[in-house]
Amino acid sequence: MKLEIISPETKIVHDNVTSVSLPGEMSAFTVLQNHAPIISSLVAGKISFSKNGQNFYFRVDGGFVEIRKNKISVCVERIIEE
Prior knowledge:
This protein is mainly beta. Helices cover 0% and strands 66% of the residues. It has one domain: ATP Synthase, domain 1.
C-alpha cells in the first residue's frame, strides 16, 4: 500500500507500507491491504505504520484520511515523530 502523510508545511511520509493505524474520531482503526474506501476525520493521537518489519510512530493533533485503492492519504495539522 502507498502511504502519504502531509502537513501544511511539508510532505512527511511517502512510502510503501504493510499496515497503518490511525486515531479516528469514533475510535482508532487499522488499515490493511484492500481496505474498503473511506474518508475519516482524525483526532489527536498516534499514527503508526509498518514497513519492512519495522514500526514507525507519529503523534498528531488531528486531520483527515482518505483510503482508496490501496492508497492512504493523510493530511494532518501538526505531527511529531516519536
